[in-house]
Amino acid sequence: MKRGRPQGTTKQAKTKQVKSNFKVNMKLVKMQDVKFNDDLFIPMKTKTIVDSVLSTEGGIFPGTNTIVIGDPGVGKSTVLLDWVCDLQAQGKKVLFISGEMNDIDMYGYVKRFPKFGKIDIMFMGEYSDCPKQAVEQVLNEGYDVVLMDSWAEVTSMIKDQMGWARNKVESWLLDLLEKQNKANNKANKNTAFICIQQMTKAGEFAGSNRIKHMTTAMAALRFDGRGASSERYIEFIKNRRGSVGDKIYFSLHRGGCVDYSFELID
Fold first, then answer.
1. Is residue 190 pLDDT above 60, yes or no?
2. 253: which residues sit within 8 A by CB, 6+ positions away?
3. Residue 58 in contact with residue 88, Cβ under 8 Å?
4. pTM for this structure?
């Protein structure tokens, strides 16, 4: 029997040695030396009760990321479109990136909620041959708030186009969000993102830990009970800028806008 060193051991050892000798260009930060524009800390307001749970100051801050999950059919798209439309009514530049709906679906929405017809929409289905480039190009225009519906649909289209693994697609999108958070766009706007995300069978957030770590806030839209009489509510379960655990109940019955009522949880 032939004895000796297993094949590949020398190469692996050299690789480990190179990694151990690699010098990192360190950049340590003292926050007392960091300066930001004051506008970055002025919240954008919907002028609805939702502001009270978005942050303690009331509203959503520029350069932040909010991830939202929800029970099937609870009204995630409707509620979040209501938010961005209200923000636009306060003078903010908003964009809706839709990977879930086409223009026919959206037309039906606008019949029930006419204000949805006033915002800029990017239908991802129109860019099936170049979704990565299309997303990069539109975000470079610079927006105050971007609603993405959904994270899974956008990353799936990029994965199919580029042939990348899921982790690489997620890293690309997270890097792109961070770039926009820091106002690296033509309008120099610190873009805030609201992204609808898939959830696990247990009702938790799906996706990598990096998504969770880069997220300023996480909210869930739920049914309170079962059956036709079930109420719907929004609850933040993570929020670096506000409180968690408060429920805002909402109704979609009237049309035109979302009706909210507030319940403080002890």
1. yes
2. 259
3. no
4. 0.87
